Amino acid sequence: MGERGMKLLLGLVVVALSSAGYGVVGLNIWPMPKSVNHGKQSLLLSKNFALDTEGSKYTDSSSILKDGFSRLLDVIQVSHNIDENSTYYDHSQLLKGLHVVIFSPYDKLQFGIDESYKLTVPSTGNPSYAHLEAQTVYGALHGLQTFSQLCNINFSTRIIEVHQVPWIIIDQPRFLYRGLLIDTARHYQPLPMIKNVITAMGYTKLNVLHWHIVDSQSFPLEIPSYPKLWKGAYSPSERYTMADAAEVVDFARRRGIHVLAEIDVPGHAGSWGVGYPSLWPSPTCQQPLDVSNEFTFKVIDGILSDFSKVFNFRFVHLGGDEVDTSRLNKKGLNESEAYEYFVLRAQKIALSHGYEVINWEETFNHFGSKLNPSTVVHNWLEGNVAPRVVAAGLRCIVSNQDKWYLDHLDATWDQFYMNEPFANITNSKQQKLVIGDIEQTIWPRAAAAAERMWTPFNKLAKDPRQVTGRLAHFRCLLNQRGVAAAPLAGLGRAVPVEPGSCYKQ
Amino acid sequence: MGERGMKLLLGLVVVALSSAGYGVVGLNIWPMPKSVNHGKQSLLLSKNFALDTEGSKYTDSSSILKDGFSRLLDVIQVSHNIDENSTYYDHSQLLKGLHVVIFSPYDKLQFGIDESYKLTVPSTGNPSYAHLEAQTVYGALHGLQTFSQLCNINFSTRIIEVHQVPWIIIDQPRFLYRGLLIDTARHYQPLPMIKNVITAMGYTKLNVLHWHIVDSQSFPLEIPSYPKLWKGAYSPSERYTMADAAEVVDFARRRGIHVLAEIDVPGHAGSWGVGYPSLWPSPTCQQPLDVSNEFTFKVIDGILSDFSKVFNFRFVHLGGDEVDTSRLNKKGLNESEAYEYFVLRAQKIALSHGYEVINWEETFNHFGSKLNPSTVVHNWLEGNVAPRVVAAGLRCIVSNQDKWYLDHLDATWDQFYMNEPFANITNSKQQKLVIGDIEQTIWPRAAAAAERMWTPFNKLAKDPRQVTGRLAHFRCLLNQRGVAAAPLAGLGRAVPVEPGSCYKQ
Question: Residues B33-56: what's their mean pLDDT?
Fold first, then answer.
């Protein structure tokens, strides 16, 4: 038996070993693609697995595809150090690279852009290539994510394998809007944390980061037009510069993810008055925003003007939920009229800056017919509003709190899984109006012990209350550096008991 | 008033603003240095803040200092994007760089190495430099960490400031051994997680990562001499190659952190028999390791031989705790004698590979006088063994579980802080023998919803139990990529209810 036969035999051993591996049985792709066909063979990834874009109409001048491919190479190694042993290679089983063909030369990330892709991996070849076709580079990025999930490290041979070849995967999303909300007002999230969330969103093919930036508790974002607004931040260091926001938008865009910015007016804006007290109805009554003060609308206009230079998504979110209308006073208007007046005027300002508006469902419940017809109604209460919204011809984002609120720790993954946006909506025209939606044990306690071991005994506090403030400061520093340090108060891995500054938890 | 006066005025305004900032009052350094003197003025960090090593005897040929300085520049910006505005600069207040003088040309990281440093920051200069002196590069790294904690971003001026100048800080650790234990046997920790822990250890000046690598539940590490051992891993992907271990050691070393490897024999080694069943006393009795089998000691020798090529710390940890001695059977020896025989023979093997041995306290409690005199006894039960260990002339690591066990979630940071290694040890000679010791809400639930939104309705599982295995697989993939995804079982942010594979939680 010649050398080639020997290698083939080793190749077969590889296949046999890998078939016995964990997780190979069944189909391990998440989320499940639209159409999947696969075989039972295995291919080996070339050490020099390369990107080939011959025939592609997309020139990738800003390296979106190239960077995505580079991230693919990183994640398929899942951080392991592999000393490759080329003697195991059977060249008839070698996958030499990925051939990507993108049909559109444009990479402006617009809402509703084609996110489909077709991914095929052959079963043999000498050498062979996987093929990925997509209308847009963003569809191609989804294809790269799917391809990464077909790859497995074989720890015996030190080779990355593609199991279950040949593959034919044809895929596109069910909903154009697949959002995840982060709230940086109740708890400041450092930029590395936000980037980690965006990176993981890419893994699950989510495409909208709904950034609930500011709320009554804090105003962390710089607004150049009204520079005192971020005086409402929890502390000077719990802030985002506009350049920070631009970086988040760019980081997300390069992964095919839109950023939806929200200002939740008028009911969740108490922090605005820290810098501009006249926005409050009175010093003792700090909510909602004063509807009778023209300055209120000037500030909203300034914010949305500044937003429009950075947050280039088609939509802006204007909130409108949980408004204590009894405190809305404007001459000549009753409570309900004042609420409607406020929301509709804010909508007009947003429209003037080129945005379409998203509002929480209370606005629809109160004066749905008066909302601008381009309004998207955002459900958050129970599951019944969506059918009424789409029956009224408006678009709706479904994220009912009983099933899709991540901070409801008693909602389990299977309840998340079974929550159906189309519940009670059977008309296919109405269905099209539903656009979908949806890191503390070690620190700071180890830091407390670390001081006990480093610091001279006579310098140690005799009562821990003497160092609470300093340790709280250090814990905030850890958070800012991307370390998920838990609050000081409470037990290990505790969650903050209420909204507030990291310096106070 | 000339231009210079104007700038000085602005400079003063800057100082006034920053003095009003959060956290400036008091001394925010963690852990507290040995000696600190400071003033009340502020300096501004130059945009081109630079490292100067003139006069240093250390050539930094492997860039340990240069990389540490580069990390310093990163962390003081805490990931923010600052558009610097040089018009705010008052050059009499400018800190142009850090002058580092290291006296030792050597950078071999040895136990007991000099970790002291002296850091001074002047109050004026035109331009001025901060000065850092250290015997070793590792002392200098501690000085860089301290310097980073003196820096603050001023969001109004977009300049990084050093508050409370002038500074004179003279510092060195109280204990030479400041450890943190991670257990990768009960729960596999991906390399990015381990690196994050090491990075944060640097922030708190801890210097020993105690890596409890393997235990009865799993054997994740590759052992080239006995390649079937890691068949005891939870799954093929929950593994470390020896190259991974070497990378962890190197990553830690470059931050001045030792890696202490542990094999916990004979009582915590049930997983060893998955690959080599003859290590078990019998197929039904899988613990402790079979003391009557010469192969047991051959495997320990092979492991420690492989360890000695990668884990170059002076110590190795051989466990020895929680041994069910009633199952230790060796002809001619009673239970107690068999336990002693095992531990002392394992010690000899370790010594033959150049290691000094650390053992858990039970070994001392049973036959303390027989232990090799170089043995370090590791306390983990209550707080009373250390006085007896040091009275016997042996060294002791204190980490009593009631106060310094991170997985005891009911132990609060202030209990950690108040736990004193020298409790009941007043003799200073005996004190010298005490060497000290000590990242899930979003995922995978959002991933469940992501599939609901991406996948065609008719492809979605009607019963979530149909997709449990696939989602569990995806959750492990997220973990491996550095995302702290929680177990599937239980509530959001739940901790695993018991040891086990990520695929099964």
Answer: 92
Choose among B400, B491, B410, B397: nearest CA to B444. B491
Q: Indicate the DSSP class of residue A92.
A: G
Q: Are strands B159-171 and B151-154 parallel, antiparallel or unpaired?
A: antiparallel
DSSP assignment of B304-353, as one string?
HHHHHHH--SSEEE----S--GGG--BTTB-HHHHHHHHHHHHHHHHHHT
A–B interface: beta-carbon pairs under 8 A:
355
For residue B457, which phi and psi values (nearest 5 degrees)?
-55, -45
Mutate to test the interface with A, among B75, B176, B207, B452 (most CBs of A within 10 A): B452
Q: How far is A486 from chain B (nearest CA, A)?
A: 9
Most confident of A244-253, A396-405, A416-425, B40-49: A244-253
Show the tokens assigned to A150: 């077909």
Burial string for B13-35 (b: 16+ CB within 10 Å, else e) reads ebbebbeebbbbeeebbbbbbbe
Instruction: Give whole-number Cα distances, B407 to A305, A492, B385, in Å.
Output: 49, 8, 21
Q: Does the beta-carbon distance from B447 to A80 stay under 8 Å?
A: no
* A2: Cα separation from own chain's centroid: 54
Residues in a beta bridge with B169: B36, B119
Q: What is the pLDDT of residues A13-28, one digit of tens each?
A: 222 233 333 333 568 8
Q: Can you tell me which residue has the tokens 């852009």?
A: A113
pLDDT one-digit tens code per residue, A181-221: 888 887 777 787 788 878 878 888 889 999 999 999 899 99
What size, in residues, is chain B?
505
**A452: nearest CB among B191, B419, B469:** B419
- Prediction pTM value: 0.84
**φ, ψ (nearest 5 deg) of residue B447:** -65, -35
Mutate to test the interface with A, among B174, B403, B413, B474 (most CBs of A within 10 A): B413
Whether B337 is catalytic: no
Q: Catalytic positions of A, please? A: 322
Answer whether A385's CB lies under 8 Å from A437's CB: no
Res A312 pLDDT > 60: yes
Contact across the interface for B406 and A243, Cβ inside 8 Å: no
ipTM above 0.95, yes or no: no
Catalytic residue among B54, B84, B262, B322: B322
CB contact burial A423-459 (16+ within 10 A = b; e otherwise): eebeeeebeebbbbbbbbbbbbbbbbbbbbbbbeeee
Residue with token string 């090529």: B309
Tokens 């800057």 sit on residue: B14
Tens of pLDDT, residues A421-472: 677 777 777 766 665 444 344 556 655 665 775 777 777 887 877 888 887 7
Query: Which is it for the CA torsion A455, A459, A461, A462, positive or negative?
Result: positive
The answer to whether A80 contacts B244, with C-beta atoms less than 8 Å apart, is yes
| Closest to B474 measured CA to CA, from B440, B505, B496, B431 | B505
**pLDDT tens, B257-302?**
999 999 999 999 999 999 999 999 988 888 899 999 999 999 999 9
Cis-peptide into A192, omega within 30 deg: no
Please give the domain boundaries of chain A with CATH numbers for all domains: 3-171 (3.30.379.10), 179-378 (3.20.20.80), 445-504 (no CATH)
* Angle, alpha carbons A214-A219-A224 (nearest 5°): 105
Give the HSE-up count for residue B74: Cα atoms under 13 Å, Cβ half-sphere: 11
Residue holding tokens 């080329």?
A86
